[in-house]
Amino acid sequence: MSEQQKTPTTTATNACLEKKAMYDQCFDVWYRDVFLQNKSQGKLGCQDLYKDYSACVTEELQQDASLVQSIRSEMNPSHTGRWIGKDLPEVGKADPSKRK
Predict the structure, then answer these.
(1) Burial (CB count <10 Å: 0-12, 13-18, 19+), residue 53
(2) Rg from Cα positions in the chain
(3) 26, part of any domain
(4) Domain-located, residue 81
(5) Which residue did the predictor score with more confidence, 49 or 95?
(6) Per-residue pLDDT tens digits for 44-56
(7) How far is CA 18 from CA 24, 25, 44, 53, 97, in A?
(8) What helix, strand, coil percent values describe the chain, rounded to 5?
(9) Would 27 be classed as within a structural domain?
(10) Of 49, 54, 67, 74, which alpha carbon lies 20 to 30 A from 17's?
(11) Sign of the CA dihedral 51, 15, 10, 13?
(12) From CA 70, how far away is CA 75, in angstroms rounded?
C-alpha cells in the first residue's frame, strides 16, 4: 500500500501491530525465563507494553463503530450456543436422521 493509499485506520492498525509484536516478544521471554522458572513471585511481566498495546486497540475500536457493533452482535445471547457447544452433538451419539 502506498503512502497515498494509507488511511488513518491502516496507520493505527500498523501501530497496534507493532505494539503487539513488542509485547509478544517481551512476554515470550518473561514466560520462558521467569514464569516457567518459578521466579515471578506473583508479578506479571511486560505490563507497560501490554498497557500501550491495549490502549492502542481500545482507541482503534472506539474509532470504528462498525467493528464494535459486529463484535457486540456476535456476543448476543442468541449466539451463545456456538461458543459453549450447545449446537454440537454429544460425543458418541450420532444423529439418527443422518444415518445412511
Answers:
(1) buried
(2) 21
(3) yes
(4) no
(5) 49
(6) 999 999 999 999 9
(7) 10, 11, 21, 9, 51
(8) 70, 0, 30
(9) yes
(10) 74
(11) negative
(12) 9
In a domain, 11, yes or no: yes
Whether pTM exceeds 0.70: no
pLDDT tens figures, 67-86? 777 777 777 766 655 555 55
Distances, alpha carbon 12 to alpha carbons 47, 77, 95, in Å: 21, 31, 48
The amino acid present at 54, given as its one-letter code, is S
Domain holding 35, by residue range, is 1-63
HEC string for 6-21: CCHHHHHHHHHHHHHH
How many CB atoms neighbour CB 54 within 10 A? 14
